[in-house]
C-alpha cells in the first residue's frame, strides 16, 4: 500500500502535512467489505477522518477545515468536496503530501478529478 511507504512523513511534528485519499463516494466499500478509511485505520497508525456532502462540509469555512487539518493526518473525501475546498482556498495543494485518486479512470471531461488536475 502506497500510504505505508509515506506514513513516516505524516508523523513529523508539522500538523500541516496532510494526505488526501479521494474516493468516488463516501460509501466506497472494497473487496474486504470495509471502506478505504476503515482499512487505513486498521492497518496504519494514522488519524483518519471521512468527509462527504451529507456531513454538511459544503457549509464549512476556513477555520473548520484548518481544525480538520490539525486533528487528522488522512482526510478521505469525495472529489467534489476536495474541488470545492481548493476553489475556496480552504485547502491548498502545498499541504498535501500524497494525493490518491481512487478509480482515476473517471478523470475525464468535467469530472471533479479532471478539474482538480487541470485547475490546481
Spell out the blueprint of helices and strands.
Blueprint: H1 2-10, E1 18-22, H2 36-43, E2 48-51, H3 62-71, E3 74-77, H4 79-87, E4 96-101, H5 112-119
Parallel strand pairs: 1-3, 1-4, 2-3
Helix pairs in contact: 4-5
Description:
- GO terms for molecular function: ATP binding; DNA binding; ribonuclease III activity.
- Residues 56-118 form the Helicase/UvrB N-terminal domain.
- It is an enzyme of class 3 (hydrolase).
- This protein has helices at 2-10, 36-43, 62-71, 79-87, 112-119, and strands at 18-22, 48-51, 74-77, 96-101.
- With 120 residues, it is of the alpha/beta class.
- Strand 2, helix 3 (62-71) and strand 3 (74-77) form a beta-alpha-beta unit.
- The mean pLDDT is 81.
- The radius of gyration is 14 Å and the shape is globular.
- Helix 4 (79-87) packs parallel to helix 5.
- Helices cover 37% and strands 16% of the residues.
- A 4-stranded parallel beta sheet has the order 2-3-1-4.
List the keywords.
single chain; about 120 residues; alpha/beta; Rossmann fold; 5 helices; 4 strands; hydrolase
| Structural class by helix and strand composition | alpha/beta
Largest sheet features:
4 strands, parallel
CATH C-level class? Alpha Beta
Q: What is the mean pLDDT?
A: 81
Give the fraction of residues assigned to helices.
25-40%
How far the N terminus sits from the C terminus, by CA atoms, comes to 25 Å
**CATH architecture label:** 3-Layer(aba) Sandwich
**Number of H/I helices:** 5
Contiguous low-pLDDT stretches (5 residues minimum) are: none
Overall structural domain count: 1
Shape: globular
Rg for CA atoms: 14 Å
| Order of SSEs | HEHEHEHEH
Strand content: 15-25%
| Annotation, overall tally of beta strands | 4
Strand order in space, largest sheet: 2-3-1-4
CATH topology: Rossmann fold
Amino acid at each position: 500500500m502506497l500510504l505505508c511507504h509515506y506514513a513516516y512523513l505524516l508523523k513529523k511534528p508539522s500538523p500541516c502535512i496532510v494526505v488526501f485519499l479521494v474516493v468516488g463516494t463516501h460509501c466506497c466499500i472494497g473487496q474486504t467489505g470495509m471502506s478505504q478509511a476503515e482499512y487505513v485505520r486498521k492497518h496504519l497508525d494514522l488519524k483518519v477522518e471521512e468527509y462527504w456532502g451529507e456531513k454538511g462540509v459544503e457549509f464549512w469555512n476556513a477555520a473548520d477545515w484548518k481544525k480538520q487539518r490539525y486533528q487528522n493526518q488522512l482526510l478521505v473525501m469525495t472529489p467534489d468536496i476536495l474541488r470545492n475546498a481548493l476553489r475556496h482556498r480552504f485547502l491548498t495543494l502545498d499541504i498535501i503530501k500524497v494525493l490518491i485518486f481512487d478509480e482515476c479512470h473517471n478523470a475525464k471531461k468535467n469530472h471533479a478529478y479532471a478539474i482538480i488536475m487541470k485547475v490546481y
